[in-house]
Amino acid sequence: MTRKPHDVSFSGKTVVITGAGSGIGRALAVRLAGLGADLALCDVDGDGVEATAVRCEGLGGRVRTDRLDVTERRAVLAYAQEIRAHFGTVNQVYNNAGIAYYGEVERESFKDIERVLDVNFWGVVNVTKAFLPHLIASGDGHVVNVSSLFGLITYPGQSAYNASKFAVRGFTECLRQEMLLARHPVRVTCVHPGGIRTAVARNATAAEGMDAARIARAFDRRLALHSPEMAADTIVEGVAAHRARVLIGAEAKALDLLGRISPTGSQRFGTWMSRLIRLAPRPGRTA
Predict the structure, then answer these.
(1) Known catalytic residue: 161?
(2) Is residue 231, in this structure, part of any structural domain at all?
Protein backbone atom coordinates (compact mmCIF):
# COMPACT_ATOMS: atom_id res chain seq x y z
CA MET A 1 0.00 0.00 0.00
CA THR A 2 1.30 3.46 -0.91
CA ARG A 3 2.06 5.49 2.16
CA LYS A 4 0.92 9.10 2.50
CA PRO A 5 3.79 11.59 2.62
CA HIS A 6 4.12 14.23 5.30
CA ASP A 7 1.94 17.32 5.24
CA VAL A 8 3.69 18.84 2.23
CA SER A 9 1.65 19.43 -0.91
CA PHE A 10 3.07 18.45 -4.29
CA SER A 11 -0.09 19.61 -6.06
CA GLY A 12 0.63 22.26 -8.66
CA LYS A 13 4.39 22.00 -8.18
CA THR A 14 6.49 21.76 -11.33
CA VAL A 15 8.76 18.74 -11.06
CA VAL A 16 11.63 17.81 -13.41
CA ILE A 17 12.69 14.15 -13.48
CA THR A 18 15.69 12.93 -15.49
CA GLY A 19 15.94 9.27 -16.42
CA ALA A 20 12.14 9.11 -16.36
CA GLY A 21 11.89 6.44 -19.04
CA SER A 22 12.06 3.49 -16.65
CA GLY A 23 12.86 2.30 -13.14
CA ILE A 24 12.93 4.74 -10.25
CA GLY A 25 12.40 7.70 -12.60
CA ARG A 26 9.19 6.24 -13.98
CA ALA A 27 7.97 5.26 -10.51
CA LEU A 28 8.68 8.78 -9.24
CA ALA A 29 6.73 10.27 -12.14
CA VAL A 30 3.69 8.10 -11.48
CA ARG A 31 3.82 8.77 -7.73
CA LEU A 32 4.16 12.54 -8.12
CA ALA A 33 1.49 12.66 -10.83
CA GLY A 34 -0.87 11.01 -8.36
CA LEU A 35 -0.06 13.78 -5.91
CA GLY A 36 -1.03 16.45 -8.43
CA ALA A 37 2.39 17.62 -9.63
CA ASP A 38 3.07 19.05 -13.08
CA LEU A 39 5.74 16.88 -14.68
CA ALA A 40 8.67 17.66 -16.97
CA LEU A 41 9.94 14.19 -17.86
CA CYS A 42 13.12 13.56 -19.82
CA ASP A 43 15.29 10.62 -20.79
CA VAL A 44 17.75 9.64 -23.49
CA ASP A 45 15.20 6.90 -24.27
CA GLY A 46 12.46 8.85 -26.03
CA ASP A 47 10.11 5.87 -26.34
CA GLY A 48 10.54 5.03 -22.67
CA VAL A 49 9.71 8.51 -21.45
CA GLU A 50 6.63 8.61 -23.68
CA ALA A 51 5.47 5.32 -22.12
CA THR A 52 5.94 6.87 -18.69
CA ALA A 53 3.82 9.84 -19.72
CA VAL A 54 0.98 7.54 -20.77
CA ARG A 55 0.95 6.08 -17.26
CA CYS A 56 0.90 9.56 -15.71
CA GLU A 57 -1.80 11.14 -17.83
CA GLY A 58 -5.06 11.59 -16.00
CA LEU A 59 -3.48 11.12 -12.55
CA GLY A 60 -2.80 14.74 -11.77
CA GLY A 61 -1.31 17.79 -13.45
CA ARG A 62 0.25 18.55 -16.81
CA VAL A 63 2.89 16.30 -18.38
CA ARG A 64 5.61 17.28 -20.83
CA THR A 65 8.15 14.83 -22.26
CA ASP A 66 11.50 15.45 -23.93
CA ARG A 67 14.37 13.35 -25.16
CA LEU A 68 17.44 14.68 -23.36
CA ASP A 69 21.03 13.51 -22.94
CA VAL A 70 22.17 14.98 -19.63
CA THR A 71 25.81 14.92 -20.79
CA GLU A 72 25.06 17.51 -23.50
CA ARG A 73 25.46 20.71 -21.51
CA ARG A 74 24.15 23.17 -24.08
CA ALA A 75 21.06 21.05 -24.60
CA VAL A 76 20.51 20.87 -20.83
CA LEU A 77 20.84 24.65 -20.44
CA ALA A 78 18.36 25.19 -23.26
CA TYR A 79 16.02 22.59 -21.76
CA ALA A 80 15.95 24.40 -18.41
CA GLN A 81 14.92 27.63 -20.12
CA GLU A 82 12.22 25.82 -22.10
CA ILE A 83 10.75 24.16 -19.02
CA ARG A 84 10.71 27.44 -17.11
CA ALA A 85 8.92 29.14 -20.01
CA HIS A 86 6.49 26.26 -20.51
CA PHE A 87 5.36 25.84 -16.89
CA GLY A 88 6.09 29.32 -15.58
CA THR A 89 8.11 28.03 -12.61
CA VAL A 90 10.23 25.08 -11.54
CA ASN A 91 9.97 23.80 -7.96
CA GLN A 92 11.74 20.45 -7.83
CA VAL A 93 14.44 18.64 -9.81
CA TYR A 94 15.09 14.91 -9.44
CA ASN A 95 18.46 13.99 -10.92
CA ASN A 96 17.87 10.29 -11.45
CA ALA A 97 19.53 9.52 -14.81
CA GLY A 98 22.47 7.13 -14.55
CA ILE A 99 24.30 4.18 -16.03
CA ALA A 100 26.14 1.17 -14.61
CA TYR A 101 29.47 -0.32 -15.65
CA TYR A 102 31.49 -3.31 -14.42
CA GLY A 103 35.26 -3.51 -14.61
CA GLU A 104 38.38 -3.60 -12.46
CA VAL A 105 40.80 -0.67 -12.67
CA GLU A 106 43.42 -2.75 -14.49
CA ARG A 107 40.88 -3.75 -17.18
CA GLU A 108 38.67 -0.72 -17.73
CA SER A 109 39.50 1.83 -20.38
CA PHE A 110 39.82 5.56 -19.85
CA LYS A 111 36.91 6.03 -22.25
CA ASP A 112 34.63 3.80 -20.17
CA ILE A 113 35.52 5.59 -16.94
CA GLU A 114 34.89 8.95 -18.57
CA ARG A 115 31.50 7.82 -19.88
CA VAL A 116 30.33 6.75 -16.41
CA LEU A 117 31.47 10.03 -14.88
CA ASP A 118 29.94 12.05 -17.75
CA VAL A 119 26.47 10.57 -17.17
CA ASN A 120 26.39 9.90 -13.45
CA PHE A 121 28.28 12.93 -12.16
CA TRP A 122 28.47 15.60 -14.86
CA GLY A 123 24.86 14.91 -15.79
CA VAL A 124 23.88 15.82 -12.22
CA VAL A 125 26.07 18.91 -12.31
CA ASN A 126 24.70 20.04 -15.68
CA VAL A 127 21.05 19.71 -14.68
CA THR A 128 21.55 21.18 -11.21
CA LYS A 129 23.44 24.21 -12.52
CA ALA A 130 20.91 24.75 -15.32
CA PHE A 131 17.87 24.68 -13.05
CA LEU A 132 19.26 26.21 -9.84
CA PRO A 133 18.43 29.84 -10.72
CA HIS A 134 14.84 28.80 -11.48
CA LEU A 135 14.58 26.84 -8.24
CA ILE A 136 15.81 29.84 -6.27
CA ALA A 137 13.37 32.11 -8.10
CA SER A 138 10.46 29.78 -7.28
CA GLY A 139 10.83 30.56 -3.58
CA ASP A 140 10.20 26.88 -2.85
CA GLY A 141 12.93 24.86 -4.57
CA HIS A 142 14.22 21.35 -3.97
CA VAL A 143 17.12 19.48 -5.59
CA VAL A 144 17.01 15.69 -5.24
CA ASN A 145 20.15 13.92 -6.45
CA VAL A 146 20.25 10.13 -6.68
CA SER A 147 23.58 8.74 -5.55
CA SER A 148 23.74 5.07 -4.50
CA LEU A 149 24.62 2.66 -1.74
CA PHE A 150 27.91 2.71 -3.67
CA GLY A 151 28.16 6.39 -2.85
CA LEU A 152 28.55 5.30 0.79
CA ILE A 153 30.71 2.18 0.52
CA THR A 154 33.02 0.75 -2.13
CA TYR A 155 32.73 -2.50 -4.05
CA PRO A 156 35.23 -4.41 -6.22
CA GLY A 157 34.72 -3.97 -9.95
CA GLN A 158 32.81 -0.72 -9.41
CA SER A 159 35.61 1.85 -9.28
CA ALA A 160 34.14 4.11 -11.97
CA TYR A 161 30.61 3.79 -10.63
CA ASN A 162 31.80 4.27 -7.04
CA ALA A 163 33.76 7.36 -8.05
CA SER A 164 30.74 8.87 -9.82
CA LYS A 165 28.33 8.21 -6.97
CA PHE A 166 30.74 9.41 -4.27
CA ALA A 167 31.15 12.56 -6.38
CA VAL A 168 27.36 13.03 -6.53
CA ARG A 169 27.23 12.72 -2.76
CA GLY A 170 30.00 15.28 -2.20
CA PHE A 171 28.52 17.72 -4.73
CA THR A 172 25.03 17.40 -3.23
CA GLU A 173 26.06 17.76 0.40
CA CYS A 174 28.16 20.82 -0.43
CA LEU A 175 25.28 22.34 -2.39
CA ARG A 176 23.03 21.91 0.63
CA GLN A 177 25.52 23.76 2.83
CA GLU A 178 25.79 26.57 0.30
CA MET A 179 22.01 26.98 0.04
CA LEU A 180 21.81 27.22 3.82
CA LEU A 181 24.65 29.76 4.02
CA ALA A 182 23.16 31.89 1.25
CA ARG A 183 19.68 31.57 2.80
CA HIS A 184 18.28 30.54 -0.56
CA PRO A 185 14.82 28.92 -0.50
CA VAL A 186 16.16 25.65 -1.91
CA ARG A 187 16.30 22.38 -0.01
CA VAL A 188 18.71 19.64 -1.08
CA THR A 189 18.41 15.88 -0.65
CA CYS A 190 20.89 13.12 -1.50
CA VAL A 191 19.37 9.68 -2.14
CA HIS A 192 21.22 6.40 -1.58
CA PRO A 193 19.26 3.42 -2.93
CA GLY A 194 20.24 -0.12 -2.06
CA GLY A 195 19.32 -2.98 -4.39
CA ILE A 196 16.48 -1.81 -6.65
CA ARG A 197 15.00 -3.91 -9.47
CA THR A 198 15.55 -1.59 -12.44
CA ALA A 199 16.95 -1.90 -15.96
CA VAL A 200 20.18 -0.10 -14.99
CA ALA A 201 22.02 -3.32 -14.09
CA ARG A 202 20.62 -5.19 -17.08
CA ASN A 203 21.70 -2.40 -19.45
CA ALA A 204 25.16 -2.09 -17.92
CA THR A 205 28.31 -2.46 -19.97
CA ALA A 206 31.47 -4.21 -18.82
CA ALA A 207 35.20 -4.23 -19.39
CA GLU A 208 36.60 -6.56 -22.03
CA GLY A 209 36.58 -10.17 -20.86
CA MET A 210 33.70 -9.69 -18.44
CA ASP A 211 30.17 -11.03 -19.01
CA ALA A 212 27.84 -8.10 -18.33
CA ALA A 213 24.71 -10.23 -18.77
CA ARG A 214 25.86 -12.80 -16.21
CA ILE A 215 26.75 -10.07 -13.73
CA ALA A 216 23.35 -8.44 -14.22
CA ARG A 217 21.58 -11.76 -13.61
CA ALA A 218 23.54 -12.22 -10.38
CA PHE A 219 22.59 -8.71 -9.26
CA ASP A 220 18.90 -9.24 -10.02
CA ARG A 221 18.88 -12.61 -8.27
CA ARG A 222 20.81 -11.75 -5.11
CA LEU A 223 20.95 -8.00 -4.61
CA ALA A 224 17.86 -6.44 -6.25
CA LEU A 225 15.66 -6.57 -3.17
CA HIS A 226 13.23 -3.68 -3.70
CA SER A 227 10.80 -2.43 -6.32
CA PRO A 228 11.15 0.97 -8.02
CA GLU A 229 7.77 1.87 -6.51
CA MET A 230 9.09 1.26 -3.00
CA ALA A 231 12.11 3.43 -3.81
CA ALA A 232 9.90 6.21 -5.20
CA ASP A 233 7.65 6.18 -2.13
CA THR A 234 10.70 6.45 0.15
CA ILE A 235 12.14 9.33 -1.86
CA VAL A 236 8.85 11.27 -1.90
CA GLU A 237 8.48 10.78 1.85
CA GLY A 238 12.03 12.04 2.36
CA VAL A 239 11.42 15.11 0.23
CA ALA A 240 8.18 15.83 2.06
CA ALA A 241 10.02 15.55 5.38
CA HIS A 242 12.83 17.83 4.13
CA ARG A 243 15.48 15.18 4.78
CA ALA A 244 19.05 15.88 3.72
CA ARG A 245 19.74 12.17 3.18
CA VAL A 246 17.43 9.35 2.15
CA LEU A 247 18.58 5.73 2.49
CA ILE A 248 16.49 3.15 0.64
CA GLY A 249 16.42 -0.37 2.04
CA ALA A 250 17.59 -1.97 5.25
CA GLU A 251 20.83 -3.01 3.52
CA ALA A 252 21.65 0.61 2.70
CA LYS A 253 21.05 1.65 6.29
CA ALA A 254 23.10 -1.26 7.70
CA LEU A 255 26.05 -0.75 5.34
CA ASP A 256 26.00 3.01 5.89
CA LEU A 257 26.30 2.31 9.61
CA LEU A 258 29.09 -0.21 9.02
CA GLY A 259 30.96 2.32 6.89
CA ARG A 260 30.70 4.91 9.67
CA ILE A 261 31.81 2.52 12.41
CA SER A 262 34.52 0.70 10.47
CA PRO A 263 35.49 1.97 7.02
CA THR A 264 37.98 -0.85 6.55
CA GLY A 265 35.35 -3.31 7.76
CA SER A 266 32.99 -2.15 5.02
CA GLN A 267 35.76 -2.71 2.47
CA ARG A 268 36.29 -6.25 3.72
CA PHE A 269 32.55 -6.84 3.54
CA GLY A 270 32.50 -5.68 -0.09
CA THR A 271 35.34 -8.04 -0.96
CA TRP A 272 33.58 -10.93 0.77
CA MET A 273 30.28 -10.21 -0.97
CA SER A 274 31.99 -10.02 -4.34
CA ARG A 275 33.50 -13.45 -3.84
CA LEU A 276 30.23 -14.84 -2.52
CA ILE A 277 28.12 -13.91 -5.51
CA ARG A 278 30.98 -14.37 -7.97
CA LEU A 279 30.81 -10.93 -9.44
CA ALA A 280 34.59 -10.58 -9.38
CA PRO A 281 36.67 -13.01 -11.46
CA ARG A 282 38.94 -15.39 -9.60
CA PRO A 283 42.69 -14.73 -9.83
CA GLY A 284 44.06 -15.94 -13.13
CA ARG A 285 40.59 -16.30 -14.71
CA THR A 286 38.29 -14.11 -16.75
CA ALA A 287 34.68 -13.60 -15.82
Answers:
(1) yes
(2) yes
